[in-house]
Amino acid sequence: MIRPADPPGEKAGPAGKIKALRVGILAAALLLWIGVLVFREAVLRIPVLIGPRGGVATESLRLELEWNPLWGIDSVLYEVEVDSLNGAFEHLVLQETCLSEPELRRDGVLQSGRTYYWRVRGGWDGKPARWSPTATFRTGPLPKTP
To answer: Which of the 8 DSSP states describes residue 3?
Structure first.
């Protein structure tokens, strides 16, 4: 039986194959570590919106927004935008910057019978991160249950 030649510079036989396997495992581990760092930067640095979301209806006209804090970053400041038109954030009813806590409460912002869109992003060292996914909620009386 004819066997393919070993690549140049490698020892023939099992020792060369074990060495190649070790190099492959180290390369895979390095790529995994790089992937974890990229994931941490790209995903974990985006606030997760707690509420309100999912188009939930609320009777209150008091704006009460909450999101998960960004951990592992010193001196995070949050920026919040609330839109009342279509979620494109071109018709803002509220834009708050320099918030140090992962919540926002305001009176006199919301009107009854409207749908609102909101998003949050963190920032540190003068650099803003990516915006969170947009969440929605509605104002007005809740449907009456029979």
So the answer is: -
